[in-house]
Specification:
This protein is of the alpha+beta class. The termini are far apart.
């Protein structure tokens, strides 16, 4: 049986130490490494050793009884959450490590929400029970109050041989048929085990064990119970399907595509398709590698349930389906900050761009952009620690010394009114016309495309071409040049020419139609928001509520929890991004805060931001709202407000 498991936690909860113990007890490594000794098996990058934190989601393979385990050790720092989420998508089971002293911390709740989103069955390990102040019962209560009421403490139970009454009742109460069986015939050990296995797989039961990873307390018990209660069922006889979860370039510059096989088998020289149903790409597998830490071996064949890397897929991206799977995964952890890369005068900018393009394929959340007119590279990031690590990565891998500008908020734009945009592109011997309806859509829905264009006016192929151009890039809004979002764009009609329509003509017409529509719309600026959860002493509540209001945030009615108070709400990222430090200062480290990205909403200081950015919509080199018409053998430009009357389609 093959099982992919992920270890997740708030930073410093003991995640990497726990992973070392798993590998040691399954005889994968001979000696347990330690983070503080820079000897951890999975923290093998120099940056991870220096900083004492996990930055990259690396993997190991170990065997226990009849199962082969693929272990993924994920980053625990919030700045590297996108790396963690990309790994979550291929996990069969997750293990959340929680400190018995600190309890549930901000990032723990973020981890839990992501696991729920991706429906990953989860176990808890309450760590550091040997430390002063460690309280397992207190942490279990926090889990029940903040994460799930379906957590079950199996620490003292010999599950293979017998169940105590608490576990018997816990399971029976959550399964009506099992409860009826219990009342009629009593306890049946095998039936309870099978039911628990099913409930765990279906995310209706979350077992918990406690111990100390550093002192090797409870680790063997955890492995044994975890193995006994988890099952997978991969079919090797079906056609091959898989999911891309990571892209890496090795030391020779070879592009490695990491895949989790979900069904079937894959061989060297097999041709596989990937991408979405409309834009499938088929390429040949030239090499297959199985990785264990930073070591790998080449193999001829891999099977369903395995993690591996291949060469030969030049354009595959993280989240892509491979083989018979074409559904692409989307990710929730989206950076809200943008920074400019700063180079010295002797740096070849185009060479630097090549390096950042490599980093962008490895971490698509960076969204590396090149501004040709300014000769500048910009990236999206989660926070300052990520920028510090990127500096080291670029220097270590590419020998390039760089700096970053202070990160700025990433804004977006949308419309409040429904408009029709018209675009016409007809320089000599070219022709395309597009009419688009642009409507406001629900917040954080992105851009949706529909077509009601009759095939008498545009063929299905040309309609798909318009759709492709709408999705091929982020479109600039008129207020700040920020990305357009939360709109539904409907293709109403269009026109081509049998002889004069060429490649790129519909691209020009489509972009011009979008901008022409925006010129007539009521445009609004959006900014990113945090969903926050703050827990402080009662006497500190007034200060926190005042700070939230000052930051233009909103809060729900506070919840009293003993001598503590829990405050939840929503607040702009721009006004609250430094508040973690502020809270730690005035609560002397006793206050806790969880900040989750809550999407975009109307900017609290819209006019101020628009003025400070100073975007000139008429000077954007990538966009124009004017159309091009042809007269007497020559093309000429017509302003957006006059072009509508000259359109050829009714």
């Amino acid at each position: 049986m093959k099982k992919t498991i992920g270890i997740l936690a708030h930073v410093d909860a003991g995640k990497t130490t726990f992973s070392e113990q798993l590998l040691f007890h399954t005889k994968t490594i001979r000696k347990r490494g330690r983070v503080d000794h820079q000897s951890a098996f999975l923290d093998n990058h120099e940056i991870e050793k220096q900083r004492g934190i996990t930055v990259f989601a690396d993997q190991a393979i170990f065997h226990y009884k009849d199962s082969t385990y693929y272990l993924i050790d994920t980053p625990g720092h919030v700045d590297f959450s996108p790396e963690m989420e990309r790994a979550i998508q291929v996990m069969d089971f997750a293990i959340i490590i929680i400190s018995a002293v600190e309890g549930i911390e901000g990032h723990t709740e973020t981890v839990w929400k992501l696991l729920k989103k991706h429906h990953v069955p989860t176990f808890f390990f309450i760590n550091k029970t040997d430390r002063t102040g460690g309280n397992v019962e207190k942490v279990l209560k926090e889990i029940r109050n903040n994460l799930t009421g379906d957590v079950l403490n199996i620490n003292s139970c010999a599950i293979k041989n017998s169940f105590d009454e608490e576990i018997i009742d816990f399971v029976a109460e959550r399964d009506e048929k099992l409860f009826d069986y219990y009342m009629a015939q009593g306890f049946n050990h095998n039936l309870w085990v099978e039911t628990m296995q099913t409930m765990i797989r279906e995310c209706n039961l979350f077992p918990c064990i406690s111990g100390s990873a550093l002192q090797d307390i409870g680790i063997e018990d955890f492995i044994d119970k975890f193995d006994y209660l988890t099952t997978t069922n991969y079919n090797e006889k079906e056609g091959f399907s898989g999911r891309v979860y990571k892209i890496r370039y090795d030391e020779t510059g070879t592009r490695m595509t990491f895949i989790k096989a979900l069904s079937g088998t894959l061989n060297i020289r097999d041709e596989v398709a990937y991408g979405d149903a409309d834009n499938k790409v088929t390429e040949k597998i030239t090499q297959i590698r199985t990785y264990n830490g930073n070591h790998f071996e080449t193999v001829q064949q891999v099977y369903a349930g395995e993690l591996f890397a291949v060469t030969g897929l030049a354009k595959a991206a993280t989240g892509d389906g491979v083989g018979t799977l074409f559904e692409k995964r989307s990710f929730e952890m989206i950076p809200t900050l943008r920074s400019r890369v700063v180079f010295g005068p002797l740096v070849n900018v185009k060479e630097a761009l090549k390096y950042f393009t490599i980093l962008d394929s490895e971490d698509p959340s960076l969204k590396v952009t090149w501004e040709e007119q300014l000769q500048q590279i910009h990236i999206h990031v989660m926070g300052a620690i990520q920028l510090e690590v990127l500096k080291q990565v670029v220097l270590g891998r590419f020998g390039l010394q760089i700096e970053f500008d202070k990160p700025e908020i990433i804004y977006k734009e949308t419309v409040e009114t429904s408009v029709t945009g018209y675009g016409h592109f007809e320089p000599l011997k070219h022709y395309a016309e597009v009419h688009l309806k642009i409507e406001p859509a629900p917040r954080n829905s992105g851009i949706q495309f529909k077509s009601i264009c009759h095939t008498d006016h545009l063929s299905i192929g040309l309609q798909n071409l318009v759709k492709q151009h709408i999705y091929e890039r982020e479109h600039h809004g008129l207020l700040t040049g920020s990305g357009l979002t939360d709109v539904t764009i409907t293709l109403l009609t269009g026109r081509d020419h049998n002889r004069h329509t060429h490649g790129g003509d519909f691209r020009e017409a489509t972009f011009r139609a979008i901008r022409q529509g925006l010129e007539k719309a009521n445009n609004r600026l959006l900014e990113p928001y945090y969903q926050f959860k703050i827990k402080v002493d009662m006497d500190q509540m007034g200060r926190v509520l005042t700070d939230i209001q000052t930051a233009h945030g909103k809060f729900e009615t506070p919840i009293i929890d003993g001598d503590r108070v829990i405050i939840t709400g929503k607040v702009p990222v721009s006004t609250f991004m430094e508040y973690t430090t502020t809270l730690a200062s005035f609560t002397k480290g006793k206050g806790s805060i969880s900040l989750d990205f809550a999407g975009y909403d109307i900017c609290h200081n819209e006019l101020e931001v628009v003025e400070s950015i100073g975007y000139d919509k008429d000077s954007d080199p990538m966009y124009t709202s004017s159309s091009v018409f042809c007269s007497r053998g020559a093309g000429y430009s017509v302003r957006w407000d006059k072009a509508e009357k000259m359109m050829h389609c009714q």
